[in-house]
Sequence to fold (634 residues):
Amino acid sequence: MLSIALIGFAGFAGLCLSMEKHFNELLKRKPSGAQVRALRIGGWLLLALSLVLAVQLRDWALGLVEWIAVLMAGVTLWVFGLPYQPRLLLGLAAASVLLGPLLAVIGV
Amino acid sequence: MKEGFRQAMAWLHTWTGLIFGWLLFAIFLTGTLSYFKEEISHWAQPEIRSHQLDPVTSLGLAQQYLQSNAGNASSWFIRLPNEREAALSVNWRDPNAQGRRGFTSKALDAHSGEPVEARDSRGGEFFYRFHFQLEMPYPWGRWLSTLCAFIMLLGLVTGIITHKKIFKEFFTFRPGKGQRSWLDGHNAIGVLVLPFHLMISYSSLVLFMYMVMPAGILASYGDTGGYFNDLFGRDDPPAMTGVAAPMAPLPELYAKVQTLAPGARMGYIQIQNPGDSSARVTFTQAAGDHVAYRRSANWTFDGVSGELLRQGAPESAAMMTAFSFAGLHMGNFAGPWLRWLYFAFGIAGTAVIGTGLVMWLGKRQLKHAKSASLPGELRLVEVLNIASMSGLLLGVAAFFWANRLLPVGLQGRADWEVKAFFLAWAVSLVHAVLRPGRKAWGEQLALGALAFALLPLLNALTTGQGLDQSIAAGDWAMAGFDLTALGTGLFLGWVANKMLRAPKPVAKRAPRTAKASAEVVEVNGC
Fold:
């Protein structure tokens, strides 16, 4: 469940950064077109990956429920945490990209 | 045309939200507490100790107890202890009883099999029942709460239509900007947790569809009784033979169920005609074993020979759809982590309603910022906002304090706890009438902060099962309750502190005219 949460969290972080307004605010520079595209595609891919993992780990019924639950929790944390702890959340998102798949491999 | 439609939806959102918001807030808060119904009940009846789970031994103890204390009953019910319920519950029905009456319930200690004389309390069951019956006579409470569920669904749909920048502002929350921040918060919690909000309000309607859309049922069955018999299976006891016969040991039948469905947890076990040669034993799988709220997973045995007589047939697709919504709503299947998320999303739903109510008033208050007092209708909304939100929290706290302070032997004790809940709620209404708005908020929240933060201490002093004991014993239901109460107290204290401090100057809005005009349109839309 934790791996799914982390990968989904990173996915939403990517989608958020793919919006010029948020990229500007968080990273203090303008994103290039390629960056925006990469973030958008990467974000969606991570979300899709977390869904596949959730279904694989828990089957459809519980997998879908858990996937939606951890996604909602992650993105709510992201949105309400950003104004207060942007650097911490960016770091957490970066760590999730690495840690999420790692945990998925050992099946957590 | 399109703008007109959106304006109409905004109007509907604003006014249904105001009228039903107060009640919806109470329904959402108590419903959220119901995700920890068993844990609250465990805290409310600390006499029932939790033990390592051992279904086989427990079942044997239950059978022994019922055989020696309810040998002549017409039926027995047994509920085994599980991860969330400490008690081994037994119920039986008096043979001469009529209708639904004549039930006796006992909570047994899961290890000794001895009855536990726990204090009389409705515990988590009170909040659970309140969230869909509102302590009103049947069926009015159910009707009203179902109507509220419909209004909530309506509020979500009209809210989405009103919210123009649902994707553009998907990740947006700007704190510290007064009315703007409230709207951001309201929108963000609404949108980000939307799947939960939609599920919970739509599934409420599915749960009560026999009330909301009864035409199909009435046309085919004439009344709802036949429909429920078809849906959940008939419960007619076999005819008594009058020949006494020794019962098969229940632990053996339990073992048979385990070979049929390895690892299945049991919900309840029903024994019809115990001690008679026609005895029947039915095991029903725990609701927590599936996401869908299935009733079909059951096994019926001959109570004497122990032969398997029948198994529940799988549900049709339509039934599975309805049961899936029911299961998602109740969340019986959720383990600890998922249960906490359910709880958090429930709080989120409560917060959406609360922020909506605050904004309705805040926006209109701005126009009267300079005058000394609010017009009567706005003052009425203010008083009801305070009483329905901070007052309700005080009611909940009063319920728990009453649980620990009322004498254990008091006649009608459980009812007194409920009275304490309503009494505190009513007093908070009076207080809100008497005190100016901001002070009333601050004082009630501060009292709430104290009441919740001191609950763990009260628990430790009155039961000797305070945090030091419960954590050491690994009783996480008890410890979790205390810690949650403490956390709630700290949070309320933080909010109370904000309210009691001098308000920040509100005049910040005036200078931004050109830039604000676009925003104002949207703020006004809500």
About this structure: Residues 507-526 of chain B have pLDDT under 50 and may be disordered. Chain B touches chain A through 26 residues (CB under 8 Å).
